[in-house]
Specification:
The protein is mainly β. The protein has four helices and 13 strands. The strands form two sheets. It has a ten-stranded antiparallel sheet with strand order 3-2-1-13-12-11-10-9-8-7, with helices on one face. A three-stranded antiparallel sheet has the order 4-5-6, covered by helices on one side. The longest helix is centred in the middle third of the chain and has 17 residues.
């Protein structure tokens, strides 16, 4: 593994500690302009999140109301009754349903469950995903922003992992923590994202950011802080 990738994983708690757990749970508050654009305002504004750490799976509950929860996997997404456990709706090969989408294209509930599922799986498993088979990490040139110099890691994901984009970039601070995370949203016309995690807490030996703010960026990588696409605030984080 790349030396900087190893250092980053260690700064977040280390693989030995991470591998003691199989699941992370958290309470999630979400905002930003993306949800209005996609016609899903408020559906996941206040919910509870469960994310697997050993395989790709995520769930939001409630999903819109207390009667539904979502279940995301790369090849299928479903909405499930919280009362009976019955599958209410499901979609195989969900990524294919985004073909031809533009930024302004509305999402249905299953598409929202797919996007939110793979996004939160990626966020909460980063940087430890760099230790997964076939995930490639390579240090690239430094980046200066607001007087700070961050080292950068280019991450390339295999097709077996559903995530926002195949190639992503992590910006690493002097303390080894992730200060910025860039990608583009392949399922939404490749809209860019400059994602800023902050307000780290230590939970059972692992460091998690509790505040995330995501903005668009230009071709030179400069973020537009007047266009916040998504805000994410987490609390009650628990590893199981």
């Amino acid at each position: 593994m790349d030396k900087l990738a190893v250092e980053t994983i260690e700064a977040h708690g280390g693989l030995e500690q991470w591998r003691k757990f199989k699941t992370v749970k958290a309470h999630l508050i979400q905002g930003g302009g993306l949800w209005d654009i996609k016609g899903v305002t408020g559906v996941l504004a206040n919910t509870n999140l469960t994310v697997a750490l050993t395989h790709e799976q995520a769930s939001h509950q409630p999903f819109g109301d207390g009667k539904r929860r979502s279940l995301f996997t790369p090849n299928k997404v479903a909405l499930i009754s919280t009362e009976s456990g019955e599958v209410l709706e499901e979609l195989d090969n969900p990524r294919a349903s985004f073909a031809g989408h533009k930024l302004e294209t509305k999402w249905n509930d299953l598409q929202l469950a797919y996007f939110a599922g793979h996004a939160m799986f990626t966020y909460l498993n980063t940087p430890f995903l760099m230790a997964w088979p076939d995930v490639q990490a390579e240090e690239i040139g430094d980046w200066e922003e607001n007087g700070a110099v961050w080292r950068r890691l280019r991450i390339t994901y295999p097709s077996s992992i559903a995530t926002t984009s195949k190639v992503q970039t992590l910006y690493i601070g002097a303390d080894g923590l992730i200060r910025r995370h860039d990608y583009h949203v392949e399922i939404s016309d490749d809209v860019t994202g400059a994602h800023y995690p902050s307000d780290y807490v230590e939970v059972q030996g692992i460091k998690f950011p509790t505040r995330r703010r995501i903005y668009t960026r230009d071709a030179e990588g400069i973020p537009n802080f007047e266009q916040m696409t998504v805000s994410i605030d987490l609390d009650r984080i628990e590893l199981l």
